[in-house]
Amino acid sequence: MDALPAQIEDARIAAPTPTQDALRRRVIALAWPVISENFLHTMLGIVDTIMVAQLGPAALAGVGAAIQLMFFVISALSALSVGSSVLVAQAVGGHRPADAGRYAKQSLVWSVLLSIPLVLIGLLLARPAVSIFGMEPEVTNIGAAYFQVVMGTVVVLTLQMLGGGVLRGAGDSRTPMLITLFANVVNVVLTYGLIFGKLGMPELGAVGSAWGTFLSRLVGFVVLFYVMWRGVNGVSIRGIEGWRPDWSQARRLLRIGVPAATEQVLNSVAFLLFSITVARLGTLGLAAHRVALNALSISFLPGIGFAMAATALVGQSVGARSLAEARAIAAIATRWAAVWMGLIGLVFLFFAEAIIALFTPEPEVVRMGGAALRAIAFTQPFWAINFVQSGALRGTGNTQFPMIVGVAGMWTAVALGALILFTIGGGLTASWGAFLFTSPITAYLVVRRFRRATEQGAIAVVG
């Protein structure tokens, strides 16, 4: 990683830092729409899960297995999203809107090109992929059919993720939130109609959930593309120039994005192996695991939201050559995320079964899922710190260290959880509880690395 040149170091010392109140307003103004947007994305999946659950545990487990595989695919395609967000943010902070627009165009182009082979592989290998969970044939058939649809349409989801990242890098998180809200309304109508054959639509069963989600995301991306074409804060994808694939631009995007994508891919593999291990508990155990993951994804929303805000705002501060401001922003975002996720942990602790019961009426699934939620209630503040400080590091251009720490922590927890499950038992409770041992360590490591980087000036100014 390149150290700051002398003139940047001088600016780092001399640049005035805005007041804490001003920085807090900037962080919250960018974070709350991101949290809301991610909540809406999560609700899209939750609404689908609730409707699919009405078809029985087999449908719930099959769709859950396919969604677990989709996390892996989406992670593989996230490199350009992370890279474009950081590059756009640093270009905006450095008052280079033309560069920001060029990065946005290239990220959209390369996302399509890189998606095509993955889509083909997914379509051809849907059934063998779902079969690795070792489920009953009926469950496997449902999961394979669902996976084929979502894999065939994954390009739209990737483009939607990229578009949101570009706008956030430009300092606008409100527009992606509103577009996602609109897409969710469309999703509820389409998914309900296509699962149960209502509103004049064909009855497709569990696979109707996949088609409804795809169509709603397609509508959302069309609106998002129009907004990017018009431009936000001087950043626009308008015009014919810059759309031809440029490998030099792709290298810049991938240099930042690949480590972050690798982290997500390896973490998805770890969770996939975790789910395969949990599948040994039977269909009810896997269904409880899937529902617990949905509830857990809600608890992550403040951490991910403030992490995305930290990435964009730290990136802008780095582009403006103000590392003192970057440190202050990261500290504010971390405190807010830790408070909110800590409160969610308390909710998990006291209302675990009631939360699981929102997804399914099956008593055994409620019991097992509730125990899993209680096991991870105490990890919430540590995960919040890890999310935000890793996001702040990515804003500086360093995506390698968060990858190393995040992957090591995840795989250690999954291996420990599997070891506990196979030796002393304990079901989902013992398996999920393994994360309590690793999360404090990973949180400490990323905090220390970000502090060192911003105090010593070891920042990669890209572009």
Can you describe what's shown?
The chain has 463 residues and is mainly α. Helices cover 81% and strands 0% of the residues. The protein contains 19 helices and no strands. It is globular and about 55 Å long. 56% of the residues are buried.
Low confidence ranges: 1-15
What can be said about the biggest beta sheet?
A: none
N-to-C SSE string, H for helix and E for strand: HHHHHHHHHHHHHHHHHHH
The total tally of domains equals 1
Write down the overall geometry.
Answer: globular
Beta strand count: 0
Overall radius of gyration: 22 Å
Coarse structural class: mainly alpha
| N→C terminal distance | 14 Å
Averaged pLDDT: 82
Tell me the β content. Answer: under 5%
Helical proportion, percent range: over 70%
Number of separate helices: 19
How would you summarize the topology of this molecule?
Blueprint lengths: L5 H9 L5 H34 L3 H20 L2 H15 L3 H28 L1 H6 L5 H16 L1 H16 L4 H23 L10 H24 L16 H32 L4 H17 L1 H19 L3 H35 L5 H14 L3 H16 L4 H24 L3 H7 L1 H22 L7
Helix pairs in contact: 2-9, 2-12, 2-13, 2-14, 3-7, 3-11, 3-12, 4-5, 4-8, 4-11, 4-13, 5-7, 5-8, 7-10, 8-10, 9-10, 11-17, 12-14, 12-15, 13-14, 13-16, 14-15, 14-16, 14-19, 15-18, 16-17, 16-19, 17-18, 17-19
Concise overview:
This protein has 463 residues and is mainly alpha-helical.
Write a concise keyword list for the protein shown above:
0% strand, mainly alpha, single chain, globular, 463 residues
